[in-house]
Amino acid sequence: MFRFESGYFFWLLLLIPLLVFCYTRYLSWRRKSVRLLGSEAMVEKLLPGSASGRRTTKFVLSILAIIFAIFGLANFQVGDQSSTVMRRGVDVVFAIDVSKSMLAKDISPDRLSRAKLLVQSMLNKMSNDKVGLVLFAGRAYLQSPLTMDYGTIKMLLNTTNTSSAPTQGTVLSDAIQMSQEAFDKRDRKFKTVVLISDGEDHDEKAVELAKQAAEEGIIIHTIGIGSPNGAPIFDPETGANKLDENGKEVITKLNESVLKEIATSGGGTYHLLANNNQTVNALQAEISKMESRNMGASMFLHYKSYYQYFLVLSFVLMLINLFIPNARKAQLKIA
């Protein structure tokens, strides 16, 4: 099996027709100019540099040298060895709170943006794990089933906002249940949920569902996002902070106690999101402790490069070109 490692260099081959066109136009112009001086055959004999055959030979050699140089840059490779690597990993569902309270700016730039950044940072450090995405507010929605296509998850994160869940509120039990349904029920391990929320407006079923999930082998880690002191909720529609029916600012506070209780019942850990790197490293450490399973085998083909042969050919052709004289001596015979 062969390939070109840097095939984009082949775009340079588009220059070849342009060079050929320019050269043929030059030859046409030269012939017309020669005819103005007199007999074309006589001029060919009298004028140095009028050896059209040599010009064409040198041009062809130059074109071939360019082509071989482009092939060298593209790096022709041949697969000579193959190896099979078993991939092991776990199933991870990220459940993100997208309720209006996540627009509070008690953590920069706001709670929801930091939650999305956290998940993206996690994805950047993952390789063999399957990942799913759940968004929730008053109801939970499965945005992506378990997949190893991290690019799709990142794309979904980029479009995630508080409108992603039409029903407002924060129903943590719905998020846990939807995450639970995303897993293969036949597996009793290898499964974890990372629940990211400010914990507001929870219902009492969340802790009980976390216990049930743990019994099915699902570990639930919770991430608290926001401040216990609270912050107003910015409303992007009005450009001002959200007000209640009495005209007072609505203050949203991080409810750490319920998130800690869910994590304890779910056999996981609770983390307050303050520093992204610290939280990512802590979660990675927890996930790495889990028993992993085979995610399939990947075959890798090892390639050997042969670019140097093309570059040598290009260099040799350029050398030959240099040693071919540009013109022959004028041949003037006087009778």
CATH topology of the largest domain: Rossmann fold
Please give the domain count. Answer: 2
Number of distinct beta strands? 13
* Range of strand content: 15-25%
Give the strand order of the largest sheet, numbering strands 1, 2, ... along the chain: 5-4-3-6-7-12
**Span between termini:** 68 Å
Question: Main β-sheet, in a few words?
Answer: 6 strands, mixed
Instruction: Extract low-pLDDT stretches.
Output: none
- Portion of residues in helices? 40-55%
Radius of gyration: 35 Å
Tell me, rounded to a whole number, the average pLDDT: 84
Description:
It contains ten helices and 13 strands. By secondary structure, it is of the alpha/beta class. It has two domains: 2-80 and 303-323, no CATH class; 91-291, von Willebrand factor, type A domain (Rossmann fold), CATH 3.40.50.410. Strands 5-4-3-6-7-12 form a six-stranded mixed sheet, sandwiched between helices. A three-stranded antiparallel sheet has the order 1-2-13. The chain has a two-stranded antiparallel sheet with strand order 8-11. Helix 7 (205-215) links the parallel strand 6 and strand 7 (218-224). The longest helix has 23 residues, at 15-37. The radius of gyration is 35 Å and the shape is elongated. It starts with a strand and ends in a 12-residue tail after the last helix. 30% of the residues are buried. The mean pLDDT is 84.
